[in-house]
């Protein structure tokens, strides 16, 4: 199905649906969490789409930045999204607050590469929360936007913490997360 966009595999018809679901050449969906955007396009068009359709997303340059999530006490499910540009690539930083069990909210922080799964293997990221006498750190390889935030959360490929921990590190309801991207 994706031969026109570069896929060269020829498969038996029974194997085709499974491959098409994970094919690197299938169109990319809008990676912006918390929106009902149904945009699809090529990998090369993703950043242009984000800059034009999701203008509220801030982009910071450099391999070491601070991702500031404001008003973490907002009720209900909330997504904070930011972009980080370094090493000639763009990374989407996401902090997601959602209810996991009745009345129990959790925060999920992860980094996605605006790129392929193979490209994502070339990078590592570190998320750090700092507070008085406390430090919480998570290190991992970013997921590709092909996989998305929900896959990262489902696979526990993210920093997970509860509301009490968020409050431990927050300053007036704002949470600063140090984000460092490095090449492997």
Automatic annotation (TrEMBL):
Enzyme Commission identifier(s): 2.3.2.27
Class of enzymatic activity (EC top level): transferase
Originating species: Grallaria varia
CDD domains: Sina
Name by which UniProt lists this protein: E3 ubiquitin-protein ligase
Family: Belongs to the SINA (Seven in absentia) family.
Entry's Gene Ontology cellular component terms: cytoplasm
A GO molecular-function annotation: ubiquitin protein ligase activity
Gene: Siah2
């Amino acid at each position: 199905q994706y031969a026109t966009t570069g896929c060269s595999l020829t498969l038996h018809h029974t194997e085709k649906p499974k491959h098409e679901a994970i094919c690197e050449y299938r169109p990319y969906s809008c990676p912006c969490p918390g929106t009902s955007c149904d945009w699809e396009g090529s990998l090369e068009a993703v950043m242009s789409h984000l800059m034009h359709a999701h203008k509220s997303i801030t982009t910071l340059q450099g391999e070491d930045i601070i991702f500031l999530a404001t008003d973490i006490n907002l009720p209900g499910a909330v997504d904070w999204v930011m972009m980080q540009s370094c090493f000639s690539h763009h990374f989407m930083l996401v902090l997601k607050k959602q209810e996991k069990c009745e009345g129990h909210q959790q925060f999920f922080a992860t980094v996605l590469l605006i790129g392929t799964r193979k490209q994502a293997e070339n990078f590592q990221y570190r998320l750090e929360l700092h507070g008085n006498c406390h430090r919480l750190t998570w290190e991992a390889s970013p997921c590709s936007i092909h996989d998305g935030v929900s896959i990262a959360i489902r696979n526990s490929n993210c920093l997970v913490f509860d509301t009490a921990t968020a409050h431990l590190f927050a300053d007036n309801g704002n949470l600063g997360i140090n984000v460092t991207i490095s090449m492997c």
